[in-house]
Amino acid sequence: MSDPGDLCWVDGRLVPRTQPVVCADDSAFAEGRGCYTSVRIRAGRPRLVDRHVRRLQRGARAIGLGEVEKAAVEKALADLAAVVFPEGEGIVRLQLSRGSDGSPHLVGVPRSLGPDRPEWHAITSPFPHAGETLAGGHKLTNRLVLALAAESARAVGADEALLFDSSGRLVEGARSNLVVVTRDGPVAPPETLGAVAGIALQVALERLPEIQRHTVGRSELDEALEIVAVNSVRGARPVTRLDDRAVGGGAAGPFSARLAESLDDV
Predict the structure, then answer these.
(1) Whole-angstrom distance, CA of residue 36 vs CA of residue 207
(2) Which end of the chain has fewer CB atoms within 10 angstroms, the N or the C?
(3) Residue 147 resides in a domain
(4) DSSP assignment, residue 25?
(5) What span, in angstroms and rounded, lies between the C-alpha atoms of 94 and 81?
(6) Residue 53 is part of which domain span?
């Protein structure tokens, strides 16, 4: 297994991470115009490949990057999984932008899993969510507020930061979608509020139809029986503390276990 810090994948080939790979006029660098997806590698194999391909293709069309070939995305994932994580665990971040000649520019960067605690502590983000800037829930490189929120969580040893909009409605986490178990059942905030259309949440909605889309305010969140953070890298993680208080009983609840099970075999 190679060190994840040694290599990256650039437009069809593996290159040393220290080699310059982005031009000064690359669209993600110059304009923040790029889209990306983060893929979990498990036992040397990338998970949910078709869904990640479709996410990149939709994002590329939405922001005018042109068409990205499915084969290119699959090759990037296969090459990095084979060389960096042949039988192990890790993450590959695939980013699509546009080069100076107008052609799509695909870069894959592997990294280790890092800390993977079974239960998460979350904070309320000090930054309000900006709302929907482009319909469709695309995962865009222009993500300053989410990055700042994630940094604020790391600064206090938390795993996630929950973002609310200017009306006090829960939108998403800095790195996950959220499912809130209320006394009326599990709900996820409406995608129209501006959250990323998460792959793991989509799978969960397909497999657990009792999850409804519904607005969640701060008072509902404070009374939640469970809060579960969901993304395609970590799966489902129960949030057992929010700021300085316990969520529900302060331990993983039964619905978080069901959510995790629904995502485990995809």
Answers:
(1) 25
(2) N
(3) yes
(4) T
(5) 13
(6) 7-111
